[in-house]
Structures are given as C-alpha cells and as structure tokens.
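for the writeup, i need someone to sanity check this before i put it in the appendix. the sequnce is what the collaborator sent (i think, or maybe the updated version? ugh). structure was predicted straight from it, no edits. if anything looks off just tell me and ill rerun, i have time this weekend
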Amino acid sequence: MTDKKRFSLLCPHCKDNIAFELSVEDLENSYSGETAKITLGSHGNPAHTVDVYIDRDGLVRSAFANFASVESKVSLQNTYITDATSDLNPQEGRAIGVKVVPYTVTIDDSPPKKYNEEIFFSEVYDGLKADKRVKSQPVSVELFLEAFKTSPRDKPIITLTVSQKYSEGYDNAIKAKKILAKEEPSFTRNIHIIDSKTTGPMMKLMINKALEMDEGGQNLDDIIEYLNWMREKHLTYIYVDSLSALRKSERVGRVTSFFGNLLGLKPVIIENENNNGELKPFKTVRSKKAAIQEIVKAIRKQFGYVELVGVIIYGIIIDDALEMQELLKKDSKTEDNDFTMDFIGTGVAMHLSYDVLGISLYPKL
C-alpha cells in the first residue's frame, strides 16, 4: 500500500476548506528547490484552481488562486488599487476587481524583480531558506503613476497602501498623484489614497470589505469612512516562532533590537496599538500554546465583550488557527463567520518569519 500524506488548508480566494492527499512518491517528485508546487482541481465561482506550496518538511507554506478566465469587473462603482503586500496576485485581483501594483524583491545582488510578475513565492522562499539576503523595495512612484493613468476616467479611485511605518509605498502613491495632478487636475481630485496602517491579510480584508460594500450599493463616502474606521481601530497580534528573519529585518528596527538576544523565548508582536501602524514588542512566551492564550487574554482586556471581526493569520498549520478561533469563541462574542483565515503572506514573512500565528481584528460596527 502506497504511503500517503494528508493536507488541509483554506482556499485563499473563496475560503473553502480543502483537504487532499498525496503519495510520498508523488510529493517527492514534485520538489523543485525547497518546495513542491501542487495544483489542486478547479472549484468555486468564478472557477479557480489553487497552487499549493509544500516544503521539504511536508508543511504547507502558501497557496495562490488561479482563474480559468479572468475578466475585470465592470459593475463596480469605483476603481480599486492596492499593492502586492496584500498578497493578492494580479490574476486574483483582476477576478475580483482590484488592480494589484507589485513591489520589488532582490536576492543577494540580483537585479530587482516585480513580485508575482517576475519573481514568485518559490524563489523567495528558496532564498530565505538558503539564508540569502532577501529584501523588498516599495512600489515605485512610476508604477503608481502607471496604475492611475491606465484607470478609467469615469470612476473614483480608492488606493489602499501598506502601512507608512513599514514602507515608502504610501508616500510614493501621493507623489504619483501630485505628478498626475499637473496633467489632469480634475481627474486626480477623485483619487483617494489610504494608508492601511497594516499589511498582508488585514490589508486584503480591508480591500474585500470595500468590494463587498461597493457591490452592495454603498456610496464612495461610506466606503472610505469604513476603511478609515478599520485602519484606526484594528489591532494585530503576531506570534513569531523563528527569530531568523526578524533579526535580519531592516524594516522593524525597534522590534528587532528588543528581541535580538532572546534565549528560549519567542516574541509576540502587536501592530497599531496606538493607531499609528507600528509594530511593537508585546510579550515573550515559551510556546505557541502560551502565545495563543496570551493573545486571547489581551483581546479580552482590550475589547471586553464587544463583537469583533477580523482575520486569523497562520504561517504553516491551519489547526493552530482553528485552535485560536475556538478559544476566541469561548472567551468573547465571536462566531465562526466573524473571522476569515489566511496565510501570513510573502511580504510579511520576509521581515518577520513564515513560522507565525496571529490575528488582526477590529470592533464590528
């Protein structure tokens, strides 16, 4: 009888729970570098497959949706632009009605490449595993300018960027708008640029909420007001199991220096505690289980019994995310559908780690 391995994950697009099996032999034959890429069958509406990346320890590291046919949505009232730190790939962005602008990645002394266009997950992961210098650069002024110029002239534009505390992406979007204003002042008055004060899964959640409101018929002012509510009110807690990426990070300096000499302890980091989009040290723990307990306790202290919504973030094992969800249900007013689940995202992983577990949440209006 052939030995088989069983895997489970949430679809990154529709959030369906996907379970699948692979023979050890088929998995071994699929490895290229540090990961095996497995494409799962089509499902959902619009129909999409899922590329799953499994490392040599047999752990799912990431997943990306692919669409059989991609047509930009024309029914939306507004144009939506975000950067690739949301971990939306360009194809999925087109399918849901979002223009995704790439940041760039360099590995050692290689030329910069656009993430999810010229360089992809497996190459970045291989570089991190090989302890190479993997760095990201923000979306350039030129790429934001191109995104604005190629957008429809008859719709407002909502642009959501990564936290200004992590990247110059927000500043570059503002600069691009000012350049365009000299050519098309009336058009640029309808470009709205929002600093999300976050990145990764929470950023993606903000975009999805804006799309949901747009399709539901809510107007531009209501959508912008809600996005501003989310950016001001959200908190993120992240447990980091491995300190290697954190120690090398150039974008989370205070956190890096605080945790740089820990022995046998693991950090829990908090984001946006003072509504400023910063990462700060929060707790040190000895295990993932202790981290989950500390995070749930902190959520209760911060929010009491207020109804909450958000996204549970996991780097490897979905069971960890499910455990956190169950503890939240017991300890606060949350239901299964109040929280989505998502992978940490490549942009975040380069500066923190892939071995993380966390949660981004905010009060339900």
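The first helix runs from residue 24 to 29. The two ends are 54 Å apart (CA to CA).
thx in advance!!
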